[in-house]
User: Fold these one by one.
Assistant:
Number 1:
Amino acid sequence: MRPGEDQAGLGVLLGIGYEGNFMPVFAGPRRCPRVAWVGEPLIMDGSGSASVLTRIARSRAMDYLKLGFGPFKDVPLPGKLSGIRADATTQRERARHLRIIADVVGRGDRLVVTSRDRQDELRSRGLTAAAVPFGYAPAVAGQIAPPDVGRRDLALVTLASQHARKAARRAVIDRWQEMEPRLLAIEGAWGEQRNIILRRSKVVLNVARVPGEFVGVRLVLAIAAGAVVVTEPMNDPYPFVAGEHFVEAPLDCVLEAARELEADEPRRRRISLAGQTLLVGELSAARCLRRALDVST
């Protein structure tokens, strides 16, 4: 549906994904129940020990200053300045998402987020949300690929980004590649191209954009492809269970945990099959969609 189209006669208007994309549709007159199902990270850093430079960089005023300095946002910075910029960018993005979500709540009937930690964060800010993961849809993640079927010629894979604002994440991957030549960092693979790579992979290493972030979509994609994810800890991975549906390790131990898993085929197969059972059952797209649209709860 496009902005301005008549919403009368619809059973429910569902906005899904990044809330900024469907907000123009929600901005029109309300003609039917509206449900917003969002998945952006919302975990905010409550620490009061940030430096003066970091607090200034995180402020909303920077949203306006960056309009003038936009062309320089990806210029490499030395030392700690690069980390300060990356942290400030993440914090501003999350603060902007919260502002948009507050607007969505005022224009909708039901807010759904994809994890319980995001639900808790919103609750702490006076916003009520249900928690329902996006779930498994073959049209997005591809058909279930059994872990012992097909050519799995890629031992260790990670989905990486060269974007300067993700420099800290990329630096971790660069260190891993120096230590492990078999690790393949995939740049810019989306859709079926990404799914084909995952179906060739044994173990997928994950570095979260935000420490503790729920990475449900990445888990669904890898599990459907028959690969097993090794990731840094999530604050609340429900309904996934560490050790049963994926492997969890501190960030500085992720590579070693991935090596051990790659060498243990029975364990990989056991974890993969348990994850796929979860996808086609509790996390099937149909079940998750019904829960998200249940405006009576």
Number 2:
Amino acid sequence: MKKRPNRQLFVRVLSSRSTRGICGVGSRQVACALGRSGLRVLKREGDGATPSGRWPVRQVFYRLDRVMRPRTLLPIRHIRADDGWCDDPADRNYNRAIRHPYPASAEQMWRADGLYDVVVVLGHNDRPRMRGRGSAIFMHVAREGYRPTEGCIAVTRSDLLKLLVWLRAGDEVVIGT
């Protein structure tokens, strides 16, 4: 049996300082929001930048109470009220999923604003993890008007659900100018 080659979802911006870009596959392109500090090759925790580079697509989380289970071939699970993601570089679980309450700084995955109704986890700084090089780089639902993210990639919920149908384990997101 022939192995299917990995596919790439691209994210392009006109300049590394831009907070908006185009995300897509081939001719299927949609607008996206990026980090408030634009793109950076050397990502640092809390810098507000989206890391440029090639990142594997790891898994999908979704809010069962807000969204039907997305159609995808990626590993998937629903978000629980106590789910979080550690963003404390000094903690042993830095850049990993955790459960709240948690003793170190950790982002809450169960959000009231709807941004994490659907989340695609990107393999940035996870294998191996390097303390302080950035955590929780996701594709998630965009704010109104595509306002900048804290370093993630954000598209409309409907666009994200369409992209999920296309993505498979082993695929990558390529981010650059």
Number 3:
Amino acid sequence: MSQCACDAAKPESLAARECSLCREVEKYPLDSPILFIKDANPSKPNRWLALPRAHGPVGHRLANMDPAERTKLWAAAIEKATAVWGDKWGIAYNGDKVRTQCHAHIHIGKLLPGIETSQFIVVDGPDRIPAPDVDGFWIHPQDGKLHVHTGEQITETVLLR
């Protein structure tokens, strides 16, 4: 995604497959800072995506977002996940090496049972979730806190398709 040439001011630059989420956010008003859309992949009928309305710099990485805006995105994704899945939710952000869409987005779904690993940090809330580096994150609630699993590229596989 680091070679993405998207420029929302030039709609023709959004024609590539990897720019389809950039095209999608352009359908919404500028005053909608966070968008929720159903995952368009027919093999993932239970998934939602949370996206910032704003386009980021090349690659649209979460790490490049303003920390306050990133926290709002995490919090909104968690709120949507809770509304849909109760306390069985999970959210996932794929790592830079495997992302197929340039526009930053968080996968929202039901966490698969028995998926917990030992590679996580515990945080108190969305404002404590660190900025992702090149690896992805998957996050779920646990005992009133959040487990933020790190060190993986493909993370959305922990969610029900």
Number 4:
Amino acid sequence: MYPIMNLSDNIQIPMYYLVISLVICICLIWLTKRVRQQRLNIKIALDTAFIIMAASLVGARLFHVFYESPELYLDNPIAIFYIWNGGFVFYGGALLAVLCGSLYVFWKARSQLHKYMDLFAPVGSLAYGLGRWGCFFAGCCYGKFCDLPWAIAGRHPTQIYASMWELGTLSLLLALEKSPRKKEGQVFFLWITLHALGRLMMESFRDDFRGPSVGLSISSWISIAILGAGLVGLFHTRRVLSKKS
């Protein structure tokens, strides 16, 4: 692992935040290009991107605070704002981001909601796939001990597993996007379906603390719910498409 980049004796950069910052820049550039290609409103898209980024930060932090380590922050509430010390839960950020982003687009361009969902889906997939390398360098989200040839520090490199799965998912999203029979919303629903399926598999390899569990980890339960929602969405859009054919 390589959690810190030492630029000098006095300047250090956490690799996690460096990776995330670069990923955000890459995704915003790609998002802008996609908006122009699909002839959507650039202001709505960029405003939505800002809302998604802000909601992701808040949601990921609050999920960690209230679910994973509530006793720590009850004793020292000001530590909630010490985000440089880490402590984020992806699903907390993702759920709040989707909710806030969807509400904003619904308000601004209700009839095009599914178009914007499909617009952001590949970008979100890329962000997750590349962002997991930040986890890898930071040493968080680590896997169980194993003796496989590709083990890193004697553990499953679950961050790399997740990245590879998500980048594979991205390739399928882009293939579907080019299909002449694609229905609005299908790219988004395919994304959440495949992401949830991949996350369920990753959970079986992970060994880091993720809060209390009820049979399965909270992330597994959320993944099951998202998988169900994705399948329902895919079935619904396919049914609508069949009726119009």
